[in-house]
Amino acid sequence: MYIHSIAFVAAETKIAQDAMYRLKHRYGHVSPDIAEVIVALGGDGFMLETLHRYMGRKVPIYGMNRGTVGFLMNEFREIDLPERIAEAQTVELHPLQMEAHTKDGGSMCALAINEVSLLRETRQAAKLRIKIDGVERLPELVCDGALVCTPAGSTAYNLSAHGPILPMGSGLMALTPISPFRPRRWRGALLPERAEVVFEILDAEKRPVSAVADYTEVRDVSKVIIREDRSMKIRLLFDPEHNLEERILKEQFVE
């Protein structure tokens, strides 16, 4: 595809801002509200912010690494950018929707591209009941927390919590406990991407829990419902030699 209009957005760091200044002068710049492609300059955290900010536009986003890890980013190069975008491979993602209910009767919905996590708020471990598609699968999990992640997010917090890496297109979500105490031998589950996961917080007054969808946090939850939002579609662009499927595969062989 030939790109007529590009919008550049950048993290607040000097290295990202300097890169954006040079790229704007080289290729021109339009508002992200009308651009055919958005180029995000920064690290993975900034890419997540960009994906959330422009999710409603359904515009493809091409990232170049001006941060640290850059798992969701392409290599930074100033030359031949329109050609790289035209030849890039598209990865389509559906976010998770978190519906969090609080102890005071309130509720809040938020979307997560990486994961929805539940975390204890105090020194005492959380106690969670887990239901999958309306069926109770674990009556009580005593833990620091638990998370549900997408394939794109499986190499992030999920991997640090010793959860499995999920290949893109696997049609799966990972349900991973965080520092489980009981049952000691339970290490999580692989779920169909269309499954609905419900966490019920047991003894919520004594053992308060927060729920986090990427970076949206809800404190003092009583119940959290998580499902894939098929109505939302995110389009990420990757250079053919650095596509996301290959990166996820490589992560499974890192020593």
From TrEMBL:
Keyword check for Repeat: no
Coiled-coil stretches noted in the UniProt entry, renumbered to this chain: none
Alphabetical list of NCBIfam families matching this protein: PRK04761.1
Cofactor (UniProt): a divalent metal cation
Role according to the record: Involved in the regulation of the intracellular balance of NAD and NADP, and is a key enzyme in the biosynthesis of NADP. Catalyzes specifically the phosphorylation on 2'-hydroxyl of the adenosine moiety of NAD to yield NADP.
Domain of life: Bacteria
Gene: nadK
Protein's name according to its UniProt entry: NAD kinase
One GO BP annotation of this record: NAD+ metabolic process
Keyword Signal: no
